[in-house]
């Protein structure tokens, strides 16, 4: 089964979110020196965020991609287009930006399935 190879979490987030997750042990650098996280700040360009999103969704060793919701908003069309089961995409809150269920692309899809 293809999902057996997928053992990593990847994160696109702000510094606080990334720091917490790295302290929890999710950090990984592969043989090609590719990290499984991207720290986004006010200077990070949308193209950089999109490139990381594309890389993480195409990698075969990533099972789950976590992205801060306020960062997902910056690349919303790309996030909304993503429909693959692996890696699973989860939008998470950050310290300064609470979670808004009305913006979550996955939750919108689930609501559409159930006719809400």
From TrEMBL:
Membrane-topology descriptor: Peripheral membrane protein
UniProt keyword annotations, A-Z: Hydrogen ion transport, Ion transport, Membrane, Transport, Vacuole
Subcellular location: Vacuole membrane
Entry-linked SUPFAM superfamilies: AtpF-like
Gene3D superfamilies attached to this UniProt entry: ATPase, V1 complex, subunit F
GO MF, one annotated term: proton-transporting ATPase activity, rotational mechanism
Pfam families (alphabetical): ATP-synt_F (PF01990)
GO cellular component, one term: proton-transporting V-type ATPase, V1 domain
InterPro entries, alphabetized: ATPase_V1-cplx_f_g_su (IPR008218), ATPase_V1-cplx_fsu_euk (IPR005772), ATPase_V1_fsu_sf (IPR036906)
Superkingdom of the source species: Eukaryota
NCBIfam families the UniProt entry points to: V_ATP_synt_F
Subunit description: V-ATPase is a heteromultimeric enzyme composed of a peripheral catalytic V1 complex (components A to H) attached to an integral membrane V0 proton pore complex (components: a, c, c', c'', d, e, f and VOA1).
PANTHER family in UniProt: V-TYPE PROTON ATPASE SUBUNIT F, VACUOLAR ATP SYNTHASE SUBUNIT F
Its job: Subunit of the V1 complex of vacuolar(H+)-ATPase (V-ATPase), a multisubunit enzyme composed of a peripheral complex (V1) that hydrolyzes ATP and a membrane integral complex (V0) that translocates protons. V-ATPase is responsible for acidifying and maintaining the pH of intracellular compartments.
Family of this protein: Belongs to the V-ATPase F subunit family.
Protein name, per record: V-type proton ATPase subunit F
């Amino acid at each position: 089964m293809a999902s057996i190879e997928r053992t990593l979490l990847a994160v696109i987030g702000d510094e606080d979110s990334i720091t917490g997750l790295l302290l929890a042990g999710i950090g990984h650098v592969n043989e090609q020196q590719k990290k499984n996280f991207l720290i986004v700040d006010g200077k990070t360009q949308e193209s950089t965020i999109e490139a990381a999103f594309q890389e993480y969704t195409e990698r075969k060793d990533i099972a789950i991609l976590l992205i801060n919701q306020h960062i997902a908003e910056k690349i919303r069309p790309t996030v909304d287009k993503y429909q693959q089961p692996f890696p699973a995409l989860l939008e998470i809150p950050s310290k300064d930006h609470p979670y808004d269920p009305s913006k979550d692309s996955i939750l919108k899809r689930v609501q559409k399935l159930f006719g809400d």
